[in-house]
Amino acid sequence: MSLDTQTLEIREARDRILSEIGDRVQLVAASKRQPDDRIEAALKDGQIVFGENRVQEAQARWEPRKPHLPGLELRLIGPLQTNKAEDAVQLFDVIETLDRSKLLKALIKAIEKTGTPPPDLLIQVNTGEEPQKGGVLVAELPALLNEARETYPGRVTGLMCIPPAAEPAAPHFALLKRLADAHDLPVVSMGMSGDYALAARLGATHVRVGTALFGVRDS
Ligand SMILES: *Cc1c(COP(=O)(O)O)cnc(C)c1O
Question: Model pTM?
């Protein structure tokens, strides 16, 4: 069987990323708007953890594949509307973008209604306090975390952030790690194509990498 260039490029990129982050950090393959053949190439190389940004795109891609991929782990890394909560809890193993009480309530209701195994949740923290970005402000984190721990026990496992594009990421990563430690949360999702190695050094347990793994996305 011959391997085409793209398959080889993805394999090399994946090997390089894995060696840079070390074996205590999980590589989440951010597969949004990537063509199917690249996803297949990553699956063939043993990648089984994927991050998706949109519920519908993820359903179309993963619902047909899921029954054939027993180890598959799907993580929602994009913003979630409450009207998509039922679909989201049925598809995703982890929802990384919990950021408001209304969404927490919608997720709990969706889990009760669908009877699906409950996903783990990460709280997204808007460390840069950017108005257009999802995530709780640092000051609002304790209240949302307390509510989630009371109403959804044992399922809030960590924090996630997307630092402002125009700022050095290190202070944001350090802040997120500090917050996770302060609240006894073991999972820290941070770092993307440009800064995953830095994030890994600063305490990420999960890095979310798209273009550095797969190549440039479809627009
Ligand atoms: C797209 C995306 C990523 C991956 O971005 P790249 O720069 O392509 O690695 C990571 N996290 C989130 C939340 C994203 O939306």
Answer: 0.97
